[in-house]
UniProtKB/TrEMBL annotation:
It comes from Tilletiopsis washingtonensis. It catalyses: N-acetyl-alpha-D-glucosamine 1-phosphate + UTP + H(+) = UDP-N-acetyl-alpha-D-glucosamine + diphosphate. Keywords: Nucleotidyltransferase, Transferase. GO terms for molecular function: UDP-N-acetylglucosamine diphosphorylase activity. This is UDP-N-acetylglucosamine diphosphorylase. Residues 409-428 are annotated as: Disordered. Its EC number is 2.7.7.23. SUPFAM superfamilies: Nucleotide-diphospho-sugar transferases (SSF53448). Pathway: Nucleotide-sugar biosynthesis; UDP-N-acetyl-alpha-D-glucosamine biosynthesis; UDP-N-acetyl-alpha-D-glucosamine from N-acetyl-alpha-D-glucosamine 1-phosphate: step 1/1. Gene3D superfamilies: Spore Coat Polysaccharide Biosynthesis Protein SpsA, Chain A. Belongs to the UDPGP type 1 family. Signal peptide: none annotated. One of its GO terms (biological process) is UDP-N-acetylglucosamine biosynthetic process.
Length: 481
């Protein structure tokens, strides 16, 4: 390989103000040069410059907005639906959703890029066992809910499962599925793809080096999903998630995170709500009951949809309550969304460049002027990320589905025995919800007995009539009726 970097590459970097990325070329081995050249040729420096400029502009606009009075309002009542408040309509919506599934119009998308680092595991978070009697992983619980959903929908229903991984989690996630025979799903119905990355930048927008032969990169946030949906599924491939959805005839997509053991994968009621209302996007929420709970809320800011972070809400408004005593801004975001394929394929690309990435100033390991590695003591650079809800301001009509927290949301965020959002609370909440199912079916669970209901037996409490009158005196797993 030449002692000089490729002229075309050097010119492109210089034009973008990033010529420093080749500063150590002469010192690199042939293998290091090849690696750096491949990384630089894949780098869209023009996009990086545009993302940086928009992020700086967005940060300035947000600061200006914070100092001004602007309207924050709860979702309008005609945009919000609660199944608990309208059970008969919920049943109709559920059937609409099941019909769409039976017709092959539904896919599900899992955000699974995270590792279980806080849980004391280097494996993908979806591999984690929260300690259920069955010791099923989060991945297995979701896979079996898909299988049950296909049975409930009837016919030859197949629900493709798109799993967004990250660089560190893709290979171990695919291996985990292979080792477990895809938990009974068809391998061709499980599609893995990868969340994108962006270079880390200096405070003035220069791409940082992790070493003389490698760019420093970081994941582009869960909002990177929108670009990732159009990217090749793997290096050298021509198909993408979008092309897969279109070729399969999938019209609707349900997206959610990996860390919620209670998630109703492909929830037919939620799907039915969004389909009946003809919206491009929908969101599930739970009721925020404490003003101090540090959670973003779905709301309208100056008439546009969005998720307003806890820190952005004035204290008086955060504590404001309606006549019935509930918080006015109470639609807590749980990262659980509906989209039409048309919206993802056509509308998002049209406005994507208008979305401002969020800036996180961090201490980023890099190299000094001599190429020596160093770790800074203070923030020296920026990581840029989008949030999955950053599309909401561009959506005209959004369906908001309010669901009971105890039935549908128990996030796994913290280390074991932390006392909140940890493996023990996830386990407790799932077993408590399934105990409710059993008791509503007429079974009796004695105090101290822990009874787990396999997702293959019941998706959300249905189909348990045969257990009426049965008494569970000891812990067990109901995996057949």
């Amino acid at each position: 390989m030449s002692e000089q970097p490729p002229a075309e590459l050097a010119a492109r970097l210089a034009a973008a103000g990033q010529a420093h990325l080749l500063a150590f070329w002469a010192q690199l081995s042939a293998a290091e040069r090849a690696r750096l050249q491949a990384q630089l040729e894949a780098l869209d420096v023009e996009r990086v410059s545009a993302v940086y400029a928009k992020a700086i502009e967005g940060e300035a606009s947000a600061a200006a907005l914070a100092s001004q009075r602007h309207s924050l309002a709860a979702p309008p009542s005609d945009a919000t639906f609660s199944a608990a408040a309208a059970p008969s309509e919920a049943a109709e919506l559920r059937q609409i959703g099941l019909d769409a599934i039976q017709q092959g119009h539904v896919g599900v998308l899992l955000l699974a890029g995270g590792q279980g680092t806080r849980l004391g595991s280097s494996a993908p978070k979806g591999c984690y066992d929260i300690g259920l009697p069955s010791h099923k992983s989060l991945f297995q619980l979701q896979a079996e809910r898909i299988r049950r959903l296909e049975v409930l929908a009837g016919g030859a229903a197949r629900v493709p499962w798109y799993i967004m991984t990250s660089g560190p989690t893709r290979a171990p996630t695919q291996r985990f599925f292979e080792e477990h025979a895809y938990f009974g799903l068809r391998a061709e119905d499980v599609v893995f793809f990868e969340q994108g990355t962006l270079p880390c930048l200096t405070m003035d927008g220069k791409v940082m080096l992790a070493s003389p032969s490698e760019i420093a990169t970081a994941p582009d946030g869960n909002g990177g999903i929108y670009t990732a949906l159009r990217a090749p599924l793997s290096r050298g491939a021509s198909d993408s998630v979008i092309s897969s959805l279109q070729s399969r005839g999938v019209r609707y997509l349900h997206a959610f995170g990996v860390d919620n053991c209670l998630v109703r994968v492909g929830d037919p009621t939620f799907l039915g709500l969004c389909i009946r209302r003809g919206v491009q996007a929908g969101v599930k929420t739970v009721v925020k009951t404490q003003a101090s709970e540090s959670v973003g809320v779905v709301a309208q800011r100056d008439g546009k949809w969005g998720v307003i972070e806890y820190s952005e809400i004035p204290a008086a408004l955060a504590e404001a309550r309606d006549a019935d005593g509930q918080l006015t801004l109470r639609a807590a975001n749980i990262v659980n969304h509906f989209y039409t394929t048309g919206f993802l394929a056509e509308a998002v690309p049209a406005f994507e460049r208008e979305m401002a990435f969020h800036i996180a100033r961090k201490k980023i390991p890099t190299v000094d002027a001599a190429g020596k590695a160093y770790k800074p003591d203070t923030p020296n650079g920026m990581k840029l990320e989008l949030f999955i809800f950053d599309v909401f301001p561009f959506v005209e009509a959004l369906a908001v589905h309010e669901v009971p927290r105890e039935q549908e949301f128990s996030p796994l965020k913290n280390a074991p025995h932390t006392g909140a959002d940890d493996p023990q609370t996830s386990r407790r909440d799932l077993l408590r919800e399934q105990r409710r199912w059993l008791e509503e079916a007429g079974a009796r669970v004695t105090e101290g007995a822990e009874v787990e209901v396999s997702p293959l037996v019941s998706y959300a409490g249905e189909g348990l009539e045969k257990l009426k009158g049965r008494e569970f005196n000891e812990s067990t797993v109901v995996d057949s009726l």
